[in-house]
Specification:
The complex is a heterodimer of chains A (about 325) and B (about 625).
Chain A (H helix, E strand, L loop, with lengths): L21 H14 L7 E5 L7 H4 L3 E4 L5 H11 L4 E7 H7 L1 H10 L3 E7 L2 E2 L5 E2 L23 H8 L3 E6 L3 H13 L3 E7 L11 H5 L5 H6 L3 E3 L14 H15 L6 E8 L6 H8 L14 E2 L2 E2 L1 E2 L1 H7 L2
Parallel strand pairs in A: 1-2, 1-3, 3-4, 4-8, 7-8, 9-10
Antiparallel strand pairs in A: 5-6, 7-10, 11-12
Helix pairs in contact in A: 1-7, 4-5, 5-6, 6-10
Chain B lengths: L3 E9 L4 H14 L3 E7 L8 E9 L10 E6 L2 H7 L3 E10 L15 H13 L6 H10 L3 E5 L1 H12 L11 H12 L5 H10 L4 H21 L16 E5 L2 H9 L2 E6 L6 H9 L2 E4 L5 E2 L1 E4 L3 H13 L3 E6 L1 H16 L5 E6 L16 H6 L8 E4 L3 H18 L3 E6 H4 L1 E6 L46 E3 L13 H21 L2 H4 E3 L5 E6 L3 H12 L6 E5 L1 E3 L3 H7 L5 E6 L5 H10 L5 E4 L8 H12 L6 E3 L5
Parallel strand pairs in B: 1-4, 4-5, 5-6, 8-11, 8-12, 12-13, 13-15, 14-15, 19-20, 19-22, 22-23, 23-24
Antiparallel strand pairs in B: 1-3, 2-3, 2-16, 7-16, 9-10, 14-21, 18-20
Helix pairs in contact in B: 1-6, 1-7, 6-8, 7-8, 9-10, 9-14, 11-12, 18-21
The chains are: A alpha/beta (about 325), B alpha/beta (about 625).
């Protein structure tokens, strides 16, 4: 039976600020799940801590609201133990690129088949607007006592150099485009990363909805009605087509260069996609041939309360 | 006459001390002896001093003694550090080429040790050389057996017609072991068998080593025939294993169905994970092969996060770590607590604080484990006393975590992990698997993961189960798992979770909570690996018609207060024995029973206790000559 969009919504009261970009992301996730017709009990949303951490409570599939910065370890553990699950991890930019940056890099290297969405708004909203890792050097958002003293992390660039195999950016007020990106990310067999630009109407008074819309810009740009443009509307080709170092390097470096564009022109869409390298699950089958058919969560371990794992040979090898 | 000897081998790390000790231990075990071996080493890859003391007896033994019967050394440092441990009438086999070596020639001898040694040598007017310490040993009644290890290699090379063998100093360990066997009049066939076994994957190396062994063994039997101790062999107990410390918990995990172990490398815990990965494919009765996924993570925070993720899918999941790693895990431990996720953390303690003595023993982390993570939530802290026990306890820990839906911290330590012992073959048929209220099927569409129930435990769904959708959060939640800050709901949820502490005490059988080895006027309380040396010390005292009681605590949190109180009502003097400074068990004991401990026997040198030391201290206590805190110091 096909599921409706409403089946993926919970009746939990949403306490995000009016106009928050997070709403668009939750809607897009729900729409993507519905359009992919993923059964509710075969999907799990893992989330970190912060405003975005509440995401899992608003979506009517398994929801695991974890710890600050730790969403990726929790999510990867679940996916490795039960590869049948569709797993979407979600968290803020502080969560994923500040306290959780080590996990971000390690997860990229591992490339477990799931989707990771960063709600990227440049501030720590729930603790009243401190600078997040994506806020640019020298910028002073509303509640900062003085301009930001740190250089910003480039989320797309970090993903490119960490081994992610699907790297994209969305904009939370372009829900349809974002929904399509999430669908592509979920379908991707590997770790997909989505950096979602998401204005914080309460604390980020620089990268506002109007700013992204380009209302402050000159006449010419205003014709575009936005700073944001879509990579798919350009010649940019993100996909790695053949498994050669030159091709790989070209696609990685163009993604990196593209990720540096900011200011008057901000690209969204898919920056990099590589479906040619082996996935973590497959790498595990090199060690454990039947891993994917008989993963940890599917294994029988007892019969009538007695263990059925036979360690006789192992014990024999230690017997004297 | 009963046999009970201690053999010690030492040398630089990376020179094959462990292999030598494994060969010796295996030979003794094959000959029917009980073996208790303990390895000591520095936090270093190559060059620093390491040694292995193997006690061999024809009765069950559980610990080391202070005195060494036979010491074999192929480097100078071992002689400098251990010469005074060899007993009167014992033997010291050493490389005669080292006699002129001075303390300053050994760069790995630290200044602190050197000045202590120099003082001793000065007092006896001896030179600061190997000859000097050997003279001291001789004056102590030690028999010296000088052998030029290089000569043995040269003669071997000559015999084999292969001059390259002359330079094979890698074989000094096998030469040392073989000389010992010759000295102790042990049959050589077991030696060759044991070498074959240890080098089973390298037949060429096995062959050369066998030649060296044969040559050295014959050398010793021809020349050393005035030694009073021998190991002729004894009746072998059927179904005896020779195992290293981490195998109890590792094989326990395989048997009880742990299928997921994320971990981050740390001494002395990672041996367990490495072993599990080496044996990751599992034979399963009546089913296709199973497996355990052992995942090396980026840090311990990730290890516990992944473990929790795995556990949420219904997979029995665990990790294995030591103090510093466990420190990093504590935030997520609280998350598992509030979300009632069954996980097992095997905690191989070492000496802290911070990096502390990273390769040395300690029982420093009991109170830390009990109080780990902020906030209040139920957890179980459970301690094993020896390797055999740790197999069964591991299986129990998984049952506890499933049945009570709480995290379990299984306390192990470095002493156990680097011991090599004979023990009874683990018996998987004695193990039961109880998954508690884990659901395989759910009807209807109003499942509540944290439903209020009579016993405070909710039926548990798992990720992927139809109709079983739930929410988890580190926030306080309602029955569905959605965030709730309602004050009255908070009370109900706290009461629900915390009621488990009482339930645990009620439901876990008393014999699994603590083990009583008898109660007397003087009774010892202790926990963990001190069990072995305590039992052996009590045995020694019994021979002198001195009876001392002993209660080994296994369930340390929640604490079995009432049972302990009733058990110890007739014990007049309580002696607490622990490998830490603050006598942590005594603190819980006092807190729960309101009773003071009378004496403490404590050790925090990073070296495990010997039964000799405990015996000596207990004697002092009985003779009313002891300090309130007896601090033990034995061991290099």
């Amino acid at each position: 039976m096909a599921l409706k969009l409403s089946d993926y919504k919970t009746d939990v009261h949403n306490d995000w600020c009016p106009g928050c970009g997070d709403f668009g992301i939750v809607n897009a996730i729900q729409m993507a799940l519905a359009e992919l017709n993923i059964p509710r009990d075969k999907a799990a949303i893992f989330s970190g801590i912060g405003c975005s951490g509440k995401t899992s409570h608003f979506i009517n599939v398994y929801g695991v609201h974890t710890l600050h910065g730790r969403v990726l370890p929790f999510a990867q553990g679940a996916k490795i133990a039960n590869p049948e699950m569709t797993i979407v991890a979600a968290g803020g930019d502080g969560d994923g690129l500040g306290i959780g940056a080590g996990h971000f890099v390690a997860a990229g290297r591992r490339d477990v088949d799931m989707t990771y969405i960063i709600f990227d708004n440049g501030v720590y909203g729930l603790t009243k607007g401190q600078a997040s890792p994506t806020l640019r050097l020298g910028e002073q958002t509303k509640s900062l006592a003085s301009p930001n003293t740190n250089y910003n992390v480039n989320p797309i660039g970090l993903a490119v150099t960490s081994g992610f195999t699907f790297i994209a950016r969305g904009y939370s007020y372009d829900i349809k485009h974002l929904k399509d990106l999430i669908k592509a990310a979920i379908r991707h067999k590997g770790l997909a990363f989505l950096d979602v630009l998401q204005p914080c109407p309460t604390y980020n008074d620089i990268n506002t909805r109007d700013w992204y819309a380009g209302v402050d810009m000159a006449e010419e740009a205003q014709k575009r009605h936005s700073r944001i443009y879509k990579l798919e509307d350009t010649e940019f080709e993100p996909t790695v087509h053949f498994n050669e170092e030159s091709e790989l390097n070209e696609k990685l470096s163009q993604a990196l260069i593209k990720s540096l564009e900011w200011g008057d022109k901000i690209p969204i869409g898919i920056f990099y996609k590589n479906e040619l390298i082996s996935r973590y699950g497959e790498r595990l089958t090199d060690r454990i041939p039947n891993f994917l058919e008989n993963p940890p969560a599917k294994q029988r371990i007892s019969s009538n309360g007695k263990p059925i794992t036979n360690v006789s040979k192992l014990l024999d090898s230690f017997e004297v | 006459m009963s046999t009970d000897i201690t053999w010690l081998i030492g040398g630089p790390q990376g020179s094959g001390v462990e292999t030598g000790a494994n060969i010796f231990s295996r030979v003794c075990a094959e000959m029917g002896y009980q073996v208790f071996g303990k390895r000591e080493f520095y936090s270093n890859i190559k060059g620093e001093h390491s040694y292995f003391a193997v006690r061999v007896a024809d009765k069950k033994i559980h610990s080391n003694l202070n005195e060494v019967t036979v010491m074999v050394s192929f480097d100078a440092e071992t002689i400098f550090r251990h010469y005074d441990e060899v007993m009167s009438g014992g033997a010291l086999i050493y490389d005669s080429d080292l006699e002129k070596t001075g303390t300053d020639d050994v760069h790995s001898l630290d200044q602190i040790f050197k000045s202590r040694l120099h003082k001793k040598l000065e007092a006896k007017n001896k030179p600061f050389t190997i000859s000097g310490v050997l003279e001291m040993a001789k004056e102590n009644g030690v028999n010296l057996y000088p052998v030029s290890f290089r000569d043995i290699l040269s003669k071997l090379a000559e015999e084999a017609g292969d001059p390259k063998l002359k330079a094979l100093i890698r074989m000094f360990n096998v030469i040392g072991v073989s000389l010992s066997l010759g000295l102790l009049k042990m049959p050589s066939d077991f030696l060759f068998k044991s070498i074959e076994n240890i080098f089973s994957k390298k037949p060429k190396i096995a062959e050369i080593n066998k030649q060296a062994a044969n040559h050295s063994y014959n050398f010793a039997t021809a020349k050393f025939n005035d030694f009073n101790y021998s190991l002729p062999g004894t009746k072998k107990e059927p179904h005896t294993l020779l195992v290293q410390g981490h195998l109890g918990t590792a094989i326990g995990k395989l048997v009880c169905g742990c299928r997921f172990q994320p971990y981050y490398p740390i001494t002395p815990a990672s041996d367990e994970s490495v072993f599990l990965e080496q044996n990751q494919i599992l034979e399963v009765d009546g089913d296709r092969p199973g497996s355990i996924a052992v995942i090396q993570t980026e840090d311990e925070i990730s290890a516990i996060g992944m473990m929790i993720g795995g556990a949420l899918t219904g997979t029995r999941s665990a990790t294995c770590t030591s103090g510093p790693g466990f420190s990093l895990m504590t935030e997520a431990l609280g998350w598992a607590g509030i979300n009632e996720v069954p996980i097992v953390i095997t905690l191989y303690q070492r000496s802290g604080p911070s990096t502390g003595l990273p390769t040395r023993h300690g029982q420093d982390d009991l109170l830390f484990a009990i109080n780990s993570s902020h906030g209040e939530f139920p957890k179980i802290v459970y301690a094993s006393g020896d390797i055999e026990e740790s197999f069964y306890d591991t299986c129990s820990c998984f049952n506890y975590s499933d049945v009570f839906q709480v995290p379990v911290i299984h306390m192990m330590d470095k002493f156990m992990s680097s011991s090599v012992v004979t023990c009874k073959r683990f018996d998987p048929t004695k193990v039961t698997i109880d998954r508690g209220k884990l659901l395989e099927k759910i009807d209807g569409n109003d499942y509540k993961r944290f439903a209020f129930t009579d016993d405070g435990i909710s039926p548990r769904s798992k990720l992927g189960l139809e109709n079983g959708v739930f929410w988890n959060t580190g926030d306080e939640s309602d029955e569905y798992g959605h965030i709730s800050e309602d004050p009255l709901e908070r009370i109900k949820m706290m009461d629900k979770r915390m009621s488990r502490l009482e339930l645990i005490i009620k439901k876990i059988p008393q014999e699994e909570q603590l083990v009583s080895f008898g109660i007397h006027d003087y009774t010892i309380i202790s926990w963990g690996s001190t069990k072995g040396p305590i039992i052996d010390a009590l045995e020694m005292l019994k021979k002198e018609n001195i009876d001392i009681g002993f209660v080994q605590f296994k369930l340390l949190h929640p604490f079995p207060t009432d049972y302990t109180k009733s058990l110890l009502k007739d014990a007049k003097t309580i002696i607490d024995i622990e490998a830490n400074y603050t006598a942590q068990l005594s603190q819980i004991f006092k807190q729960n029973l309101g009773r003071d401990v009378d004496y403490f026997i404590l050790k925090y040198t990073g070296r495990a206790m010997t039964s000799t030391e405990i015996y000596d201290s207990l004697k002092k206590i009985i003779e009313n000559k002891a300090n309130k805190r007896e601090i033990l110091t034995h061991g290099a």
